[in-house]
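Here is the promised in-class demo. Please do not try to memorize the tokens; focus on the logic of going from shape to residues.
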């Protein structure tokens, strides 16, 4: 059984994933590089693109989601 803290972290990661439009692994790679899919949202923000700005960065790199 997971701790409350672990469940909270998973819930926050899921919320951020939905916030950015449920990107594919290929889209994560396009924005963050080969390690993108394995990174946490905190690591992605430190890399320069937080969840709120993911779609902008993806569009700038020519891989915007049509949704």
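The designed amino acids, position by position:
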């Amino acid at each position: 059984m997971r701790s409350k803290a672990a469940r909270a972290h998973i819930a926050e990661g899921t919320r951020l994933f939905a916030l950015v439009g449920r990107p594919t692994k290929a889209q994560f790679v396009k924005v963050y590089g080969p390690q993108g899919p394995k990174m946490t949202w905190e690591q992605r923000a430190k890399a320069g693109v937080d969840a709120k700005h993911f779609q902008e960065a993806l569009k700038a790199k020519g891989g915007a989601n049509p949704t």
